[in-house]
Design brief:
By secondary structure, this protein is α/β, with parallel strands linked by helices. It contains 8 helices and 7 strands; from the N terminus they run αααβαβαβαβαβαββ. It has one domain: Rossmann fold, CATH 3.40.50. The longest helix has 17 residues.
């Protein structure tokens, strides 16, 4: 079944030979849809084509599947070396808050991740240890200890209202104009959507995240000639994924 889904979501050119490994690693060690994983690579390539400078940040790592795709994509970009920043407690889902939906309150302690597996995947795809940083712990504990890096892509995969809010408040101010924010749970978790919509309103950003698939959405940071609308050229055949 996985092979059938990948063939539908990922171009054939990415399934030949050794280049298929990032997708196997991503699917087997992630809860993201195959199309969502592919689109992370697509956005990384857009960052390169547009010349958007900065590092890559992922908030919510689980077992490292999406981090592996991001790291592999990062290593293929030309220009100055970038770094991948990864944040997760690796201890399962935290308690949901008042702004989260009823289902979210049933998830505490589920989806336990693995820092070791994440490191194994990155190493297996040729990402050296000095090109990524893993901060283990709750966001409210780890974020204050990190000097926010200039950022080109922010992947927010933390489901609930409070961690999504913290991630956007911490890293969006350092996101370069033309950089991208991917909201993995915008389409399915009430808290993730509410936190995002409130943040956009507070920042005065009159834009709506565009659907990648039924679960995830993204938007581009406006400024310096960028309108905030996603750049055309996405995987054809998925309605709503191209602005």
């Amino acid at each position: 079944m996985i092979r059938r889904v990948v063939r539908r979501a990922v171009p054939k050119r990415l399934l030949a030979g050794r280049i298929a490994e990032p997708w196997r690693s991503g699917i087997e060690n992630s809860l993201l849809t195959p199309l969502n994983l592919y689109f992370l690579d697509e956005l990384m390539q857009r960052v390169g084509r547009l010349g958007v400078q900065g590092d890559i940040v992922e908030c919510g790592v689980y077992k490292g599947g999406s981090a592996a795709v991001l790291g592999w994509s990062m290593m293929r970009l030309e220009g100055p070396p970038r770094k991948l920043w990864l944040f997760d407690s690796f201890a399962g889902m935290p308690p949901a808050g008042d702004q989260d939906g009823n289902f979210s309150h049933t998830l505490e302690g589920t989806y336990v991740g693995s820092e070791q597996r994440t490191r194994e995947l990155l190493g297996g795809l040729g990402v050296p240890g000095d090109r990524y940083e893993i901060a283990t712990g709750l966001f409210e504990d780890t974020f204050p200890a990190i000097e926010t890096p200039p950022t080109a892509l922010l992947h927010v995969d933390c489901d609930f209202y409070e961690p999504v809010k913290l991630a956007l408040e911490k890293f969006y101010p350092r996101l370069a104009p033309g950089g991208f924010v991917v909201l993995n749970d915008y389409g399915i978790y009430k808290g993730a959507r509410q936190a995002t919509d409130e943040f956009l309103a507070t920042e005065g950003l009159e834009l709506e995240p565009v659907a990648i698939d039924p679960t995830a959405s993204f938007f581009q940071k406006p400024g310096d000639g960028f309108s905030g609308l996603p750049v055309p050229g996405h995987y054809p055949g998925w309605p709503g994924a191209v602005a």
